[in-house]
Structures are given as C-alpha cells and as structure tokens.
Batch of 4 targets.
Target 1
Amino acid sequence: MTIPIALTIAGSDSSGGAGIQADLKSFAALGVYGASVITALTAQNTTGVTGIHQVPADFVTAQIDAVFGDLDIRAVKIGMVADLAVIDAIAAGLQKWSPEHVVLDPVMVATSGDRLLAAEAVESLRRKLIPRASLITPNLPEAAALLDEPVASSEAVIESQGRRLLALGCPVVLIKGGHGQGAESVDYLVGAGGTIALAAPRIATKNTHGTGCSLSSAIAAGLARGEEMETAVRNAKAWISAAIAAADRLAVGHGHGPIHHFHRSY
C-alpha cells in the first residue's frame, strides 16, 4: 500500500504529550505516516518544562534535506521555533522543496500569558514563515500577539483580527477559541470567502496537554490524505474534541496530562 506522508517540524517533548511526539501520534491515529525534523530538545513532564536545548540551524537544514530528499511529503506541520537561525533554515527549506501544504502553529504565548518568543523572533515568523503557510492556527492570545493587539473578546473582533492576519500572506487562518469562555469552544476559520464558526462543547478536564500541537497536526494529516482545507479542519476539530473528551481515561503524570490520541482504538 502507499500511505500518505506528513512531516512535523517542531520541538521534542520528553513526556510525550506535546510537540513532535504529539504530532507523530496524531499522524498515526489518522492513518498517515509521520516524519520529523526536531528543532529543540526539552526536558519536561506534565508539570512543566525544566530545560530546553536548541538544535543548531545547520542540523535542522540537514534533517529537512534528508527527509524531503527521500520521502514524498504531502503536508508539513510547523510548531514552536524560537531561534532566529532556525526560522531562517525552515524558510529556506520550504523554498527549496516547495511542499504543497504547510500548517503553521505559531506557538508564542504560554497558557499563563507569558510570551515564549522575543519580539524579533515574532517579526521573523511574520515575515518568513507565515507567507509560506497554507494555514496558520493561532489561539486567541497568539493571534493578538501577532498583531500587537489586545486579546479579542468578541466574535466581531476575532473576525477582524483574522482578516488582518490574512494580510500577512497566508490564505487561511484558524483562530482557536479554547482560551475563551462559555459552554462551547468556538474556532473561527477565516479565508477570502468569509468566516466559518466551528463549535464544540467545552470539556471540563485538566488533561489538555498538547491540544494545539495535535489539532494542527491532525489538519496536516487530513491535507496529506487529500482533503480540502475546510474538510480537513472540520475533521480535525471533531477528532481533537473526542480526544479531549477521552483524556481522563488515561492516567499519565501528576499535572496536565495528555489528550487521548488513540481514543478510537482503546
């Protein structure tokens, strides 16, 4: 059989709940073969991060060339990239290999609200990676940080921010509403044709580690399988909602545990 292949370019999570590990689990759960380019190693678990070791930019380039030089990559997911030289290496790799689909998850703001990227790195992300993306998937704080604006507190402002993010050069933006309030978690898919609101019940659980990573990689998996963008987003939203709902069936760690990537299997 010929299996669709997707690539994740992101950091490693030693506890297995987010980053590269979450991406590869998402690909596997959705019937896609996963390859990886590691941008950083982290020492972390469900209670927090205790160390980060950046991978040199030239070795990121070597990984990109090795993977694209051999595998038929149908979609790429990009996660957190904190180093300016690594952003340059990824941008150069995308230009060289021209993958059809690129899903960029601009991980810039921690749940606490603290910025994870310096201002110059955010600017590099805006100029060098967002224009090469097919879709970007910021949450509400990340969308605000990309635009240097307050976090949106209404649907009208979310739509307005989505349109301004389109002006940065990507054709479609998915603003995730997990940081919002209310009985439903509403994501907003903003494109040239308008805005689509995608709602799902808000699930009460502390086990949401890796949700953003897994959603963006699930979308990339759908694109790798040949789905249209809206279909890939809708299917990924349904899958991630079920994975969050099943998270409490797992007992992993003492902090914010992972979602259940393989809820369909066990």
Target 2
Amino acid sequence: MRVLMLSWEYPPHLVGGLGRHVAELSLALAEQQIIVHVVTPTTEPENAFTSLEKGVMIHRVFAPAMKLEANIYNQAIAVNQILCDYVGRMDEVFDIIHVHDWLTGFAGMDLQMSLKRPLVATIHATERGRGCGHINNDLQQAIDGAEQRLIERANRVIVCSHYMLHEVQTFFHTPTSRLEVVFNGVNLDDLRNGHSKEQLIAFRARCADPDERIVFAVARLVHEKGFHRLVEAAPRILAEFPQTRIIIAGRGPEANNLKRQAYHLGVADRVDFVGFISDEQRDEYYQTASCAVFPSLYEPFGIVALEAMALGCPVVVSEVGGLSEIVKHEETGVTIYPDNADSVAWGVLHILQDPSRALTYAARAYQAVEELYNWSRIARLTRGVYRRTVDKYLAPVSI
C-alpha cells in the first residue's frame, strides 16, 4: 500500500506533539512494508528537499506563507495550496491520503477529489475542545468550521482516545461507523538509550539539593494545561514537604502569570520556571524526579504522561480526556480532579508520602506502556484502518 501523508510539522520542525506522532507512525508503517510519502512545509528554502529517511520518503516543501501570514487560518490556506500544487507535480500513485488535524485538511480534501483517492483524517484535538466547548472569536469559528468540513469529507476519522471519539461525535455529529480509536504511543527504544547513573546523579545535582524532592511538570504554558492549579497547590505541598522543588518546564503565554502567581503565594523560591528544554533534558527530569504532574483541564490524549511512565517516573494526572484512559488510579499512577488545587496537592502528597508505593505504580505503568502504546502495534492498527477504508472506497455500489 502507498500512503500520502500530509503534516503541518515534521522533525526537526516541531511545534507540539503532532510532528513526533507523524514521524514515529510513518517509520513504523514503513517497517511493516507500507510505502509512505510525507509532505510537509518548511519556512527555509535551503531546507526544501526530498530525502529517504529510515524508509520514509520526506518531501520538505518551501512555504514562505508560514512566515509571511500572521493569521494561522489564512496561513494554513496559503500553505495548503502550495502543498497541493507540489503533490500535483509528483510522479507517484497513492492508494490513500492521510492528513493530521485541520492544518493540512484543505490540501487533503482537494487531493481527495483530484487524485480520486480515499481520505483518512487523524484529529488530535479540536478548537471547541480547547475552548471547553465554546467558540469565542472569528478565528476560532473559522478553525472550527475547517475541522467540521474535514471530518465530514474524510472517508474515515482516527481519534487518539475514546474521549476524543465522544468529543467528535458530540461536536460534529459524526457517525460511529466512520470513527476509529487508535491510541498514540512512545518509542521505547529511543527512551531506553538514556544516561548512565553517574550522568543522572550529576544532572540532579544541578537542579536540586540532595535532600530536596523534585516535582516536575512540562508542557506549553497555556491555561488548558492547568499549571496555575499546580502553583496554587504549592503552599500545601511545601507545608508537609518543605524540602521540595517544583520545576515547571515549557514556554507559552501564561509564563509571566504563573511566575507572578508563585511570587504572590510566597513560593517563588521553591517553584522554578526553567523555560524550553530539550527532549534529552525532559527525559533526565523524568528519571530524577519524585513524580511528574499533569494537571490539565483539557487533554485529548496526554503523550507527556506516557513518556514519563516509559521512563519509570510516577505520574499524577487530571481525570480528564485521554489522561484518564492512560492512567488507572492507584494502579499505574494517581488521578486527580481537574481544575482543583486541593486535589493536585493531594495527588502529589500521595506520591511523596510513600515512595515504595509510588515505585509500584511506576512499574505497572511501564508494563502498560510496553504492551499497549508501542509504535509497532499502533502501525498495525493504522494499517487496518487504511485497508478497511480502501476496501470500502473500492467496493461496488449496490443498486
């Protein structure tokens, strides 16, 4: 089978988790004898080239509109036209088209018509979901409309959790027969190629004193990640475990608000905002922290929790979205009420009070990641979606 995959981002150009998902999925599909061509935009002409990378053909297409147009919706329309024109010049025949989120949906729908091939769309999140069910401005309205058109036009829609299946059904009235749940995953081989014990000891010494416990959180600093509730919980955590250092990694529009909040609560000396960190640094934190906390208000899946679990870090997560499907309370981690600082504090303290219990959770969590969230399994499930979609598309229409 030959797959045309369109993605707004692809390593090394990464904005969020979508690009990593596409990279890992396309590689795993290639390992299962699927021919995959990924077409993705780049803002730099010197980076516009085609290359075979680990069995996947990557087409990086120069798209200056990604820099010139500030409005993301208008930017997407302009970039999609460039991608569509590029595919039109390719001397390739594909069996199926696969797009990820609305950002490349315009090109996907156009190519569905011009190439006369079925379209699969993976919906990683929705604009309405990020807004807790609300659309508040013209830009959100435009994005919501683009999502609706893509979901209506796609022959099959993949979502990353049962929570997202319900969300797409509720918001867009999509019939269950066109929806497929395929979970996200992590690359255990990459994560296992970590650091020596000595390197981790040295890293920890740079972050905290020997008698301090590390509570770690990482994500884009936006309201929906719920970090304001973690900061609000800090005084209660520190009251019981004063030698705790809360480390929050990431950047985003809420960064200054969170720093001011920590200052006004009198915990600024115990809450460290370390800004952007590399994947390598993230993994070092996971391997040296007492726990990782993800107090999200909205989380379609929660890949960050999987990465922590894969590295043996006990997790505390909101009972929301995909997180509630990944983490089983007091089995593979601790779940807490979303948007509730008292519950955040309780969850962290539950881990800190009994390290041996926390390690039991972490061991079970690692086993779950290894069995359920590996890319080989995810690629097999995705290949099944492709096959069912193509078979139905080619099936004769009964009269």
Target 3
Amino acid sequence: MMRTLILMLSVVWLALPVLAEIAGQNDPELQAAVGDWLAGNEADALPVLSAQAASGNVAARLLLGQIDAFPALQGDWLSGLPRAERIALLRAPGGLSGKRWSTGLDDPVAQAWGRLWDTAATPEVILDFARLEEPRAARFAALTLARRQRQGFAAVAADPAYPSSLQAYALRETKAGAEALHPADPQRAVLGAEPDLSGFAAWSETAEEADAVVALCETLCRAEDPAICRPAALQALGGYWGLMPLGSPVEALISSDIFNRSTRGIAATLRHMRGPVASACLTDALK
C-alpha cells in the first residue's frame, strides 16, 4: 500500500508545470524514464536516460550529471553494478573514467554548476541558482563555499533573490548573533546556537528547506506525531548541514515537492542520515 502511494506521487510530476524548459525534457521516453527513476526503478530508467544523453538530450545529460555527482541519488541496483558498467551508464565517453554528461552543456543550470565546481567560485553563484529557481542547488552552493572558507556572503545577502535559509552565513560575517533567526531555525547552528527542537515541527510547516523532512515523516511515519518524527529526522541528518543538500537534483525538471515524496527522494533522505534516531518509525525505516 505504501509503495503504491509513493509510486503514484512519483508519477504525477508529469502533469505539473515546470519552472523553465530544458531541451529534451518533453520527450515521452525521457519522461517515462524519469518517472521510473522516481519510483526507484533504476534498472529500467538509467539505461534509457543514458541512451537519451548519448543522443544529445540535454535534460537527460543534466539529470545524469547530478546522479553521478551525488551518491545519495544512487540506489542499490546501480551501486551493485561493476564500476565499468556504472561509468558507462552515468558518464560520457572520454578519459580513463569518462566525463560528466553535464560538463560544458549549453544550459544555464548546468553552467551554474560548472561555476560552482570551479574553486574560484564566489557567493554570487548562490544568486545564480536562486534566480534559476534551483533552491537545493543554492543551498548546496553555500555549504560548498563555506567549506572552502569563502567570504562575501554578506555582500550578496541583501539581494532579494538570496535565500532566507542562508542568512546565517551573512550574519556570521557581520558578527551578528543568532537572535535575528527564528528560535527553531536549524541554521542557528552556523552561528554556534542550538535550534529549539520543540518548535521545529511547527517551524518546518512553512520552511521550504525543511520539506524533505516533512515529506519523509508524512510518507513513512504518518501515524507518528510530527513533533517526534521531524526533530528526530533533523538530528539523524546531522542538523542544518545534513538538511541543506536535500531536494530535487534539477528543480526545472522535477519539483522538490514531487521529488521529496517519491521513492527515490525518500531513499535519498534516508541515505543522508548518520546519527541516532529518536523515532521508532524512522528506526524501522532505516533497518
């Protein structure tokens, strides 16, 4: 029953409007393959996506580039293949290990990722992703730049496109305290302050960056109190840093609302969990 529900949620993405058109995304074969992938059927989906990418489909190349770059998007079937077969499915021919299909694509989202992978990237790339309506990419960009100890968040934070989920990086540069943030906002941890987990369930109702946790608990643990499940999921993810990378790999192709509730999205969230889980339901789901 639960698997049927998740499959239905995975497929309805086809009927939803997209944010911006990616070349090739309306190809019926591509759409069917993305639906299979969301439903967890890698064995049928990935060979089709690979063939579409080889034929020049930009949407297929962009999605495969993300699957290649982020292991949490990869399932058991793909992980069980010999290395050479995985490379042949996920990458374009070239060099010893192939090359990422999304490299050099004439597509604004792919080009923004290219700018982020450049070690000279600045927080301006966060605005690039935000303006392209790729919120998960913007959040991942901030994490990446913070790990590189890049400065300049405060200089771009005044831009209307700058995500509210990343304000802590600007506040840290201006030496401001966590008082400017909601007590339950996980990004308080960036400033050395603990979020109020007792208010996290209520806060997460309207926080875009928490949707993957909300989706997880609503899909797998509907019978459990959200005030138990959601904070437990956040803690198991490692807090803010585990929460930020969650969401659709390509928002213009698959909305995060659909991705987070799909079989593949739920599996990706569970794969990010590392710590102890203070939820009986999630403990069972992780077994």
Target 4
Amino acid sequence: MLIRVGSRGSRLALTQAELAANAIRAPGVEIALVPITTAGDRDRTKPFGQIGERGVFVKELEEALLDARIDVAVHSAKDMTSTDTDGLAVGAYLPREDPRDALCGARGIEPGMRIGTASIRRRAQLLALEPSLSIEPLRGNIDTRLRKRAERGLDAVVLAACGLDRLGLGGEIGHRFDPEELLPEAGQGALALQVRVGEEEFVATADDPETARRVGLERACVAAIGGGCLAPIAAHHDGETLTALVADPDGRWVERRTGDDPVALASELATLAA
C-alpha cells in the first residue's frame, strides 16, 4: 500500500513530514513524500493580510487532498484555519512539542529593542510587555529569518520554539516566553495529519489523544471568536486550563480569559475582537 504524504517544501516542513511518515509507517505500507508549494511560500515579502487570510500555508495542500493527488497532508496545526474544510478532517495529531514562542538574538526583552516578526499576535503581546519596542515585519523560513536578523541589525526575532528544536537550532534561543508573557497561537507545537473524510484509518495509529483534545479546544475557541491571522487572537490549553486572548494590534490593551468551555470564553472575548 502506498500513502502519499504532502508537505510544504521548506527544510522544516520536510523534517516534519518525515516525523509524520515515521509515525504512520507500518509493515506493507510504503510512504512517498510529495512537496507542494503554497501561496505563503511563493510570496515571502507581503504581509499575510495581503496574500490571504489564515490558511495561506494550507490551501494548496488541501486542494491536493481533495484532488486525490496526495493521501495525507502534514500541517503545522497553527497554520490551519479554525474550522475544517468540507470533505477533509484531521485524522491525527502527533504528540505536541514545545508550544512556546522563542526570542532569538537576546536573552530577554529590553526597552527600545528592534524585534522582527510578521505575526500580529506576537506584535500585540510584545508591545503590551514593552511599549517602547520597535516591531519590524519579517517573513521567510527559519533560516532566512535568523539570517535577516543579522543583516538588518535587529536585536532579536521571535519564532516558534518547536520549529527551532525540530531543526536542531535550539541553541539559537535566548528566551522561551512563558504563556503568561506571550500566549501561543492555537495549535502551536502540534503537527496535524489531514486526510479525506472516511480515510482517517490511514493515520489513526499516529494520533495522540491528549494533543488532539487540547488543540481541538483551542481551535474551537478561535473559531467561536471568529478570528484569523489578521486579528490578534490566541488560545492555548496547558493541560488543565484553556486560556484565550484578544488584543489591540498595538498592544494598548490585552484581554485574557481562562476556563474550560471554549464557547463561553469566546463569547466573552468576541465583542472585543470585533
């Protein structure tokens, strides 16, 4: 049996696809990796809002699934839209790795620093921590952003800790933000294995139920708020409590709520995110 696993073509994405392939590999199962270029990969200069809404790294993979050109799509769960595409389902989540954001180039936040990030969620929370920061747009894969930090003379860049760890670049991290400082994106740290509805058995053995539970609650909360990558919204479950956040893009205010019910949390925050 041949299972075609689709992935973005970056070094990190292919590393993650290998993790997924190893998780679903079994006797009699052959795995073929299929690199696919997404809209977010083709245009690495424009802000995400000018390319499209959340999902710019996902759409082409989903189309390949629906067209039966691949059988499994491997996504960073944080890149996915908060609701499932018709005809597709997340059949498994691999065990979650470090969900935190990481500061590279410095050991902490200091007044007046120039920090690179393309994430409005990170921008809002960084400015709430220290209003004197200069937040500069910065896109590209991990290697590119680390290189651009030096080229542009930035004091630091903020990246997902899990991606750095997966590439063996954990030594670049000067500080891992506690979620109380920067609340992670819904799904951050988790890999989602997406399949066509009815074909979940392709990946079922790879599923980590606890990761699925937590990420499911995070995605449900973001969906109920109605947010995407254009809005500074976040949700994170630490294993005991779900925390959701909405913020002003410039960090002038940040509102957090904690609880067990994603819809209840969302209803408290939705009006603020409008």
